[in-house]
Write a structure and sequence with these properties.
Blueprint lengths: L1 H25 L7 H15 L17 H10 L5 H11 L6 E5 L2 E5 L27 H29 L14 E6 L5 E5 L16 E6 L12 H21 L6 H15 L7 H4 L24 H4 L1 H10 L3 H10 L8 H10 L5 H11 L28 E2 L4 E9 L2 E9 L2 E9 L2 H5 L5 E9 L8 E2 L5 E5 L6 E3 L3 E2 L6 E3 L3 E2 L6 E4 L7 E8 L4 E8 L6 E4 L12 E9 L2 E10 L2
Parallel strand pairs: 2-3, 3-5, 6-8, 16-22
Antiparallel strand pairs: 1-2, 4-5, 7-10, 8-9, 9-13, 9-14, 10-12, 11-12, 15-17, 17-20, 18-19, 18-21, 21-22
Helix pairs in contact: 2-3, 2-4, 5-6, 6-7, 7-10, 11-12
The chain binds zinc ion.
Amino acid sequence: MEKYFNNYKIFYFLIFFTLIYFQSMFGQLTIPSDHQLQSIIEKLQNGRIEELTVKDSEGLPDKCGLSLMFELQQNYQYFSSEQKSMIKKLLAPTERQKSVIVGNFRIHYDTSGIHTPSMLTPSNERMLTDKNYVKNWLDSSRVITQFVDSTAQIFNYVWDYIVNTLGYDTLRFEIGDNAYNIYISDLSYYGEIRWEPSSPLNPGQIPSRYATWILIDNDFMDVYTPSRGLPGLKVTAAHELHHAIQLGGYGFRDQDRYFYEITSTWIEDVIYDNINDYYQYIKNSAGQPRGHFANPGKSFIATDWVIEYSRAIWGKYIQERFSPAVMRRTWELMGIDSINQNSIKSLDDALKQINSTLKIAFVEFAKWNYFTGNRAVPGSYYSEAPNYPLIKECSTIELIGPSRTYTDSIETFSSLYLPVLYQGKKVTEIINNINFESASNHWILPYRFNYILSSTKVDDSYRDLGNGVFVMLDVSDPWNWSIGGLITTTQRSVVVFPNPFVTERNKSIQFLLPSTKDITSKLYVYTSNMELVFSNEYLINNYEPKINWNVTDARGNVLNSGIYLYVIILNNREHVGKFAVVRR
Ligand SMILES: [Zn+2]
């Protein structure tokens, strides 16, 4: 009897865990509890009184508020009618003291109180509170108007770019309105998109589409340092307006938030190539990897408030490998009235139209993500690759005896970079999970694999890794896996970026250095006649070894057009190369 009882306990335990497992696997399977619903309303309230800045564990401010709106929309049917009217009130924008219509936009703003917009001083303080800039009523009115005018000009430019240059669906106004509404608010983060969950533009159809409105910060003072002020406003306009077009033109797909963020973050860089706000999601201030570069084994469809933004690089890959139109085609397919046409299916269909597939592209994407930082190859892979961090690799495994098995697991649609050492030669293997069925069902699951290494070619299922080791991936479903691009680890020499250096476009040249333990490095620059024009010694950050130089001579003058020679002393070696300066 005792034993019987124990078995029952184990049985219930198993059922319990299976339920939890399936719930996390399929997301919203069960009806949300009253507590969960209440907590969504509380988050909305907190956002409303604008006291809370949602921050992830790494301290990055919430980019755009889309996750809360997704949570709200997903659970909307379960709220009581009192809760629904509460939500309606909480969502309704606060009317500002003034509004102005410019082109397609109506900008709502205050001229007194905490929400008053302000330009920033060169030291990133609000001009309105700086007596050097604002001495009287006229000055303050000018500073406010400048922010409002910039907002209007930037939003109209972004609209035109997304619709007329990139070919996306047009932006939808709220029913009965003749302009799109922007509310300037004191947010202490970038911006927020909102819509009324009870009023889709296309009732009864899938996916439902919504008219939206946008809240933006009133100064962009508390954002990623390089984006403070107008650059922050520009990327926010691109990011939020693309969300508006996603929701108004192609609709709400509740499991695909990752793809809404990938696209919006990528679009920032398409429209404003020289603002790189997305770098904060791929590396920290010390240059160490973050987001995708820190967690390549995390599912492509996952969201954690960092990784979905970091995967703007997926858009960069699609744009530079194929065309930005493949991203737009994906959205067009997602807009089709069918529950099955989710982001994964649509990506695959869009890639098939240009003779690729999602599986093939994903394996190639994993390879692109290896050739970054000081592994960047000029003219290949990402154009901005030298600025990206190195992707996180596993600890090196070494084959010493005749064979060895490495066992690990990675999530649905993700990659693992495994350095393999044999007789002193190291090669990095990329193992990709490409389980399409799992991804298109939104299952984020860990998948186990055995990676077998052998000093001899046991049979035809083994292949030569390139350093004398024969390898084989031992899985029951080989069609869901790929041992991707085979990579020989080479010690690269110095990479110069950008080259040519164009004075009107570029601020500085970066010399990306090979990995090093040196803490200083010397740079010498010569003309083509071997006249020394510049020399200096630099401190080196070992995570991201590079020299940043503003391309001026010893007197501080920008160099003339021409070909120059550099010599960099590092690791007891002279690294010599050339670069061009174009001065217009
Ligand atoms: Zn977003």
